[in-house]
Amino acid sequence: MLLHEAIILSGILDRLRPKSILDCGSGCRADRTIVQPHIAAVFSGFDVTWTDIQPGPDIIQCDLTQIEAVRNLPRCEMVTACSLLEHVTDIDVVLGAMASRSKRWMIVTAPYSYPPHDCPVDNGWRPSPEELAQRVVRQGFTVIQSCASGPETFQGVPDASTSIVVAERQTDGFNWMNVRGWLTETEGEELIRLVEGKVVLEVGTFCGRSTLAMAETARKVLCIDTFADCPEEGMTDTMTEALCNIKRSEHRDKIIVTRGRQEDVLPTMDLSTIEVVFYDADHSEQSTSRGIRLLEKAGLPKTATVIFHDYHSLDPGVMKAVDAWFAPKGMSPRTVGSLAIFDAAERAKTA
């Protein structure tokens, strides 16, 4: 990282104040703190997760061209990559991986004027800020700042400069947090993590809050709900609001909605491709127990993760039904907020 580049990036981070950062191509700790201490200074005071293709004591080792490995990285408010793209074999694949981990912003830099430096390879790419911006825009982001640092003499190299692009995810500001419902932010983030790249069955949609959360990363979300009257919310037909919310979402093409009772719809479905079930229907013990039986009878794979919402004492019906069904089989859920999560390994105990 060039010195003037570090000054520019420090100003950007101070202005945007991201809650979390995933830095890609971080290099080892010694490089960041001893060889180039200005790198550590840029990120000082921020919650940063470091990742690199090479292992290290504070590094999450990850090849950004491997989809499954990328899915194990946390999704952060900002993703950064400083002078990484000249060292990869597929620039767009790496940018796509970065975009998949970003909730809001990306900062990407690349050498504009700098000699080849193998680490372990140098593909020779030396984009202008405009050229770098064009590649970032392809990932569904809007450029909010682009510039070049320097020129400066850095480590004996004269006239060194870097292209810098800051971009924000394209959105009209509408997301799952704007939708009516009781799913908390912590619960939503856990769902988003659990369903990434998977086919999801949601039983109980209400206005689509959890639906839109899961659709951010899921491959497909199949929804079942009666969309019956909800007098306590002053609503006579939640389907209208749900469909409006889904229509506004950039992920709407992933979502398929079926209106009907679980007793009528589940027996007609082929559940062999379902990888995650999110159950958030009627909170009574009887209805929840019935739903569990219907899922089992319909052939839900043992490899599927099953998640129940409202697993707490305020809705004892859900907790009683879940415990009555799973505890005798030696299964206990992992909980996040009021989510009760039975992953594939837990459910395989009964296989």
Give a verbal description of the structure.
The protein is an alpha/beta fold and 351 residues long. It folds into two domains: 3-169, Rossmann fold (3-Layer(aba) Sandwich), CATH 3.40.50; 176-350, Vaccinia Virus protein VP39 (Rossmann fold). Helix content is 32%, strand content 25%. The chain has 13 helices and 15 strands. The chain has helices spanning 3-16, 29-35, 37-43, 67-71, 91-101, 129-137, 185-194, 209-215, 238-248, 262-265, 285-297, 316-326, 344-347; strands at residues 21-24, 48-52, 59-61, 76-82, 102-113, 141-148, 152-154, 157-169, 199-203, 220-225, 255-259, 276-279, 305-308, 334-336, 339-342. Strands 1, 2, 3, 4, 5, 6, 7 and 8 form an eight-stranded mixed beta sheet that branches. A seven-stranded mixed beta sheet has the order 11-10-9-12-13-15-14. Strand 12, helix 11 (285-297) and strand 13 (305-308) form a beta-alpha-beta unit. Helix 2 (29-35) packs across helix 3, helix 7 (185-194) packs across helix 8 (209-215) and helix 11 runs parallel beside helix 12 (316-326). It is elongated, with a radius of gyration of 24 Å. It starts with a helix and ends with a helix.
Index terms:
about 350 residues, Rossmann fold, 15 strands, about 30% helix, about 25% strand, elongated
In what range is the share of β-strand residues? 15-25%
Q: Name the CATH homologous superfamily of the largest domain.
A: Vaccinia Virus protein VP39
Task: Give the C-level CATH assignment of the largest domain.
Answer: Alpha Beta
* Order of helical and strand elements: HEHHEEHEHEHEEEHEHEHEHEHEHEEH
Measured between the Cα atoms of the first and last residue, the distance is 53 Å
CATH fold label of the largest domain? Rossmann fold
Overall pLDDT metric = 92
- What class do helices, strands and sheet pairing give? alpha/beta
How many distinct folded domains? 2
